[in-house]
Structure to design on (360 residues):
């Protein structure tokens, strides 16, 4: 009975009006202070005591992300009022392994990070192999890339699959939301749009969640399965064209620019696919993010891009660029003859394979 009463007393001493975070750093070396970030804002700092321990107190009525910055290492945790988090880590551990108690969400993030780190090791090995092979045979750069890129993509695909399974089983907590941010958005755009709609009411006061929800809602009109929004732009001669003018063909809507090195690297592949499939009701429509007309025209000529080209010459501020939510280039959309988006951001071998299956 005494033990039971003691348990009740201890639980009753828990402060439900604040979040407490206590921690201990083994082998702290020259580290004297720990920083605490709430989302992306520095909100507090604490000096380590003689035992390399620290403590923070915050008021946070709703679950929120916090980052402990310890030297050159960052540790993401989740907490809210009533939580008493206990953190422990060995700074000399190169794997950044840590222990966290007092928050189920934080424990889940820790476990997910273990999964992420395993795939990260594979990625690092591929990157190291690439650097070593290039160093020993620079002339074989393209062939080395072609061999290792499928390995990289396979690793990414496996990770994204496991990460999304974790997201699906954690829709009610911020650990699932954290995992969603690690997934290849190009491959999982439709699933993430659905996920955003499912969680939008779960965390109404969390800025990161609501920002993600707004982004996904903005992407929905230009996601796979939607009809591509029509637009009107001038070509190189100033003549106006609408996207709907080309309806009836499969269209690769290609956002690019003369100043974009990855775009110029991809152009030979697009030329190759255009020549291969143009007889099968396929065309390319270029939308340039250039702001220098002469540079735009020169790139078209130099890269032998023999298809229609449109541009507002406004870089990222073009109305069509904003309408299609283009935040990086090259970016592309494949439309079917009815104008429906059937694929996005396919490059290299993936583009060729998709066109080969679709344009039979």
């Amino acid at each position: 009975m005494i033990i039971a009463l003691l348990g009740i007393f201890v639980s009753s001493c828990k402060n439900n009006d604040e979040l407490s975070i206590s921690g201990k750093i083994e082998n702290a070396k020259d580290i004297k202070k720990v920083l605490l970030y709430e989302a992306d804002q520095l909100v507090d700092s604490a000096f380590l005591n003689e035992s390399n321990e620290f403590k923070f107190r915050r008021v946070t009525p709703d679950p929120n992300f916090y980052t402990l910055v310890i030297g050159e290492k960052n540790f993401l945790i989740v907490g809210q009022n009533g939580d008493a988090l206990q953190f422990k880590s060995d700074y000399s551990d190169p794997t950044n392994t840590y222990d966290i108690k007092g928050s189920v969400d934080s424990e889940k993030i820790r476990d997910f990070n273990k999964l992420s780190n395993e795939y990260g090791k594979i990625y690092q090995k591929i990157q190291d192999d690439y650097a070593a092979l290039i160093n020993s045979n620079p002339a074989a750069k393209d062939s080395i890339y072609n061999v290792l890129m499928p390995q990289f993509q396979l690793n990414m695909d496996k990770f994204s699959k496991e990460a999304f399974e974790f997201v699906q089983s954690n829709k009610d907590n911020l650990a699932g939301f954290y995992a969603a941010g690690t997934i290849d958005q190009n491959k999982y755009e439709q699933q993430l749009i659905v996920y955003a709609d499912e969680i939008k009411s779960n965390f109404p006061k969390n800025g990161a969640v609501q920002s993600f929800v707004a982004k996904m809602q903005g992407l929905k009109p230009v996601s796979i399965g939607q009809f591509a929004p029509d637009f009107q732009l001038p070509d190189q001669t100033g003549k106006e064209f609408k996207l709907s003018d080309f309806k009836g063909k499969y269209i690769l809507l290609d956002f690019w620019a003369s100043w974009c090195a990855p775009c110029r690297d991809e152009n030979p592949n697009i030329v190759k696919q255009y020549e291969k499939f143009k007889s099968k009701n396929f065309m390319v429509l270029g939308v340039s993010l250039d702001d220098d007309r002469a540079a735009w025209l020169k790139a078209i000529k130099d890269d032998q891009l023999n298809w229609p080209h449109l541009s507002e010459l406004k870089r990222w501020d073009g109305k069509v660029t904003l309408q299609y939510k283009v935040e990086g280039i090259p970016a592309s959309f494949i439309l079917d003859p009815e104008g429906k988006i059937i694929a996005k951001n396919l490059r290299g071998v993936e583009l060729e394979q998709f066109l080969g299956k679709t344009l039979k």
